[in-house]
């Protein structure tokens, strides 16, 4: 069973920053588009950002300019840097790769 392992969530004040990490097995990570999704209470899961194996990125309009997705191919790890956090960023953040999901990490922003 493939497992993606996320970390880095927490409780922060509005305006603060967090960096989320997602580790994946090398055989999955090396060729896969990596993605971050989030799901706020009572809402559907939404795509936040993607990064291809070559490093091309895409972002949801709501996070452009504040979120940065990156990957370290040597460490088989993807990252999501979140700056200027807003209350509405509060959600469980999930990592996705090649049809596999992580367990989610909670990001809570206090206003």
Question: Features of this protein?
Answer:
four-stranded antiparallel sheet; globular; mainly beta; seven-stranded mixed sheet; 1 helix
Structure description:
The protein has 111 residues and is mainly beta. It has one helix and eleven strands; from the N terminus they run βββαββββββββ. The chain has one helix spanning 26-29; strands at residues 5-7, 10-13, 18-23, 34-39, 46-51, 57-59, 67-72, 77-82, 91-97, 100-101, 105-110. Strands 2, 4, 5, 6, 9, 10 and 11 form a seven-stranded mixed beta sheet that branches. Strands 1-3-8-7 form a four-stranded antiparallel beta sheet, with no helix packed on it. A hairpin with a 2-residue loop joins strand 9 and strand 10. The longest helix has 4 residues, at 26-29. The N and C termini lie far apart (39 Å). The model has no long low-confidence stretch (mean pLDDT 95).
Structural class per helix/strand content? mainly beta
Number of helices: 1
Low-confidence stretches: none
Gyration radius, in Å: 13 Å
> What is the percentage of strand-forming residues?
over 45%
Provide the succession of SSEs.
EEEHEEEEEEEE
Question: How many strand elements?
Answer: 11
Shape: globular
C-alpha termini separation: 39 Å
- Helical amount among residues, as a percent range? under 10%
Give a short account of the largest sheet: 7 strands, mixed
Overall average residue pLDDT: 95
């Amino acid at each position: 069973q493939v497992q993606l392992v996320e970390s880095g969530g927490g409780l922060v004040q509005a305006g603060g920053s967090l960096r989320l990490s997602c580790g994946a097995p090398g055989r999955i990570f090396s060729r896969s588009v990596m993605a971050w999704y989030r799901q706020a209470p009572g809402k559907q899961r939404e795509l936040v950002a993607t990064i291809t194996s070559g490093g091309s990125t895409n972002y949801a309009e709501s996070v452009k300019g504040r979120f940065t997705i990156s990957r370290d191919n040597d460490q088989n790890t993807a990252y999501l840097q979140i700056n200027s956090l807003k209350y509405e960023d509060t959600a469980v953040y999930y990592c996705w790769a090649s049809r596999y999901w992580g367990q989610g990490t909670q990001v809570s922003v206090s206003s």
